[in-house]
From TrEMBL:
<keyword id="KW-0479">Metal-binding</keyword>
<dbReference type="InterPro" id="IPR036291">
    <property type="entry name" value="NAD(P)-bd_dom_sf"/>
</dbReference>
<keyword id="KW-0560">Oxidoreductase</keyword>
<dbReference type="InterPro" id="IPR002328">
    <property type="entry name" value="ADH_Zn_CS"/>
</dbReference>
<feature type="domain" description="Enoyl reductase (ER)">
    <location>
        <begin position="17"/>
        <end position="366"/>
    </location>
</feature>
<keyword id="KW-0862">Zinc</keyword>
<dbReference type="InterPro" id="IPR020843">
    <property type="entry name" value="ER"/>
</dbReference>
<dbReference type="InterPro" id="IPR013154">
    <property type="entry name" value="ADH-like_N"/>
</dbReference>
<dbReference type="InterPro" id="IPR013149">
    <property type="entry name" value="ADH-like_C"/>
</dbReference>
<protein>
    <submittedName>
        <fullName>Aryl-alcohol dehydrogenase</fullName>
    </submittedName>
</protein>
<comment type="similarity">
    <text>Belongs to the zinc-containing alcohol dehydrogenase family.</text>
</comment>
<dbReference type="GO" id="GO:0016491">
    <property type="term" value="F:oxidoreductase activity"/>
</dbReference>
<dbReference type="Pfam" id="PF00107">
    <property type="entry name" value="ADH_zinc_N"/>
</dbReference>
<dbReference type="GO" id="GO:0008270">
    <property type="term" value="F:zinc ion binding"/>
</dbReference>
<dbReference type="Pfam" id="PF08240">
    <property type="entry name" value="ADH_N"/>
</dbReference>
<dbReference type="InterPro" id="IPR011032">
    <property type="entry name" value="GroES-like_sf"/>
</dbReference>
């Protein structure tokens, strides 16, 4: 068992848009339903950048990070699903008690936003308070050598899945792949357009290929990412800087696409997603825009043809089963998400964010080392 006051290094953001600073923090021991995880590696996600820049209302100073993977160090008295020594991935939090959770839809938990961005437990407490920082970001704050998670957002992983790779399964990979598999139920022979080929978009492309979609159009402004999208399964590539995206999509599918995933969070792109849908098609918003952002959707395009617009959080994943399923897809060679990953030492966290912001890397992963 760990001591009641565990001390370790964490990357702390102290002011809006400021750098990550490595400092030592202390936490109280786990509550009965909590798990202490020694973090081996953790992915860097765009949501971390949005939160650092205060585009989401996260209290400061804070320890971010929400794609952690590691080894269980200790567990609370009520934990049954994992034991010390287990290899685990950390994912989004949920309360387990609201209507959505009871219906098997934890990604739409009524308390999910607060548990993710409130930097506190559901009761408002903070295990990191004694160090003067906020923790519990997405129920884990994994930009640190240890994380305190809840049993609900701790997922046992196969021992042969590298922990230095596994972290992104808990957010970016399950979001893109889950949108295709769980939310939209894209089937063999169907068509899908993916707006944005970052980590989430490329996960969607890989999943669309895995389920047998035959028209997979990838849209971006980065030729290198589009080239990778083609290698991973995209059948058509569109660089929005070099050609008219709408015109090209209509040439590819004159009758419209069955599904469009909008990941850029640009209002004009969500409006376009609706316009290139086939009758009865579905446009799904995944990209997170700043609060208050509105999109100019033509209401008649929805009314005439029965088109649908919906939001998708975390790929409608049930993490305890879906993340192991993605791991199995990876091991079978059908979901090669390792091709998106570049490893960085934990101390290089600021460089990882800079590289990601420039588009030089798709999915940075911070490796803790010793």
């Amino acid at each position: 068992m760990v001591s009641p006051e565990l001390e370790f290094e964490a990357a702390v953001v102290e002011e809006k848009g400021g750098p990550f600073r490595i400092r030592t923090v202390g936490v109280s021991g786990p509550r009965p339903d909590e798990v202490v995880v020694r973090v081996v590696a953790t992915g860097v996600c765009q949501t971390d950048a949005h939160s650092r820049n205060q585009e989401y209302p996260v209290p400061l100073p804070v320890i971010l990070g929400h794609e952690g993977a590691g080894i269980v160090e200790s567990v609370g008295a009520a934990v049954r699903d994992v034991v010390p020594g287990d290899h685990v991935g950390l994912t989004f939090p949920s309360c387990g008690h609201c209507r959505s959770c009871r219906a098997g839809a934890p990604a739409n938990c009524e308390h999910g936003f607060g548990l993710s961005f409130g930097a506190a437990r559901l009761d408002g407490s903070n295990a990191y308070a004694g160090s003067g920082v906020h923790g519990h970001f997405f129920g884990q704050s994994s930009f640190a050598r240890y994380a305190i998670a809840n049993e609900r957002n701790t997922v046992r992983l196969p021992d042969d899945l590298p922990l230095t790779l596994a972290g992104p399964l808990g957010c970016g990979m399950q979001t893109g792949a889950g949108a295709v598999i769980n939310s939209l139920h894209v089937g063999a022979g169907e068509s899908i357009a993916v707006f944005g080929t970052g980590a989430v978009g490329l996960a969607a492309v890989m999943a669309a290929k895995a389920v047998g979609a035959t028209t997979i159009a990838a849209v971006d402004v980065n030729d290198a990412r589009l080239a990778l999208a083609e290698e991973l399964g995209a059948t058509h590539l569109i660089n929005g800087k070099k050609e008219n995206t709408g015109e090209r999509l209509r040439k590819i599918r004159p009758g419209g696409f069955g599904y469009v995933l909008e990941i850029t969070a640009l209002p004009a792109m969500l409006a376009l997603a609706v316009e290139v849908l086939a009758p009865m098609g579905v446009a799904a918003l995944i990209g997170g825009a700043p609060a208050g952002t509105k999109a100019p959707i033509d209401m008649n395009s929805l009314l005439n043809g029965g088109r649908t617009v919906r939001g998708i959080a975390q790929g409608d994943s049930r993490p305890q089963t879906f993340i192991p399923a993605l791991a199995e897809l990876y091991r079978s060679g059908r979901f090669p998400f390792d091709r998106l990953v570049r490893a960085y030492d934990f101390a290089e966290i600021n460089q990882a964010f800079e590289d990601a912001a420039r588009g030089d890397v798709i999915k940075p992963v911070l490796v803790m080392g010793e």
